[in-house]
Amino acid sequence: MKEKNKGKKKSGARRVERRFLAEEGYASQVATGIGMVGSLLLGAGVWEQWVRDEPKSYALYLVLVGGAMLIASLWQSSRGASPIRVGDAGVALEQRNDLRRVPWYQMQHVSMKGDALCLSLEGGAGDVLIPLAAHPKAIAKIVQEAAGRIPSRLEISPNQHQALPQLIEQDGEVLPIDSLQVAGTKCVHCDQVIVMERDARLCPACGAVYNSAHVPQQCKSCGGSLGTRALSA
Predict the structure, then answer these.
(1) Cα separations in angstroms, 213 against 112, 179, 209
(2) pLDDT tens digits along 51-66
(3) Which residue of 83, 169, 184, 232 has the fewest CB atoms within a 10 Å radius of its CB?
(4) How far apart are CA 231 and CA 233, in angstroms?
């Protein structure tokens, strides 16, 4: 789900999220690794192509790949990892002027895969991987929120949980969530498409979307109490 990071719209309930920047030095570490491998390949290619008496057929490919990796390392070092937002609307990945939002109810599993947090999305929509080295505090916040909102889908071991940093009140910049684009989303209960945002109601815990005429007493996604607790979009 994508939304433009522009334009503000007031809603009846105040929703907030915390914005986390990537750890300092993460981009430089990744760029350094790419640059080192690229330098090795480029050096080997130059040796095989122009220094040896009999150039190897693959030497030019080493030069091209090595040069491309060096360019990529320079680009990575200037770009850095994108900020991440965590809050009432789920997890949002900043992509230039856009936000890619992943609501809590769309997460089938929240787990660690190697050195990254994996958000497995419903319907075979793929995975969202967040490197631990880049966003330890954002990951700690995601795990904290998921434990309260979608506990049955959180698959973090005690050791993995203890390895995450302890959050303090000052971690992350608190931002209001000005609007949520739910038009075109299907009602979780009746499967009808929401045409107008005023016709949508949201689960306060997982953000599941319902038609205002078909709001059940219990959320079909997270199992939490709903009914009159449903929020306007």
Answers:
(1) 38, 21, 12
(2) 777 777 887 888 788 7
(3) 169
(4) 6
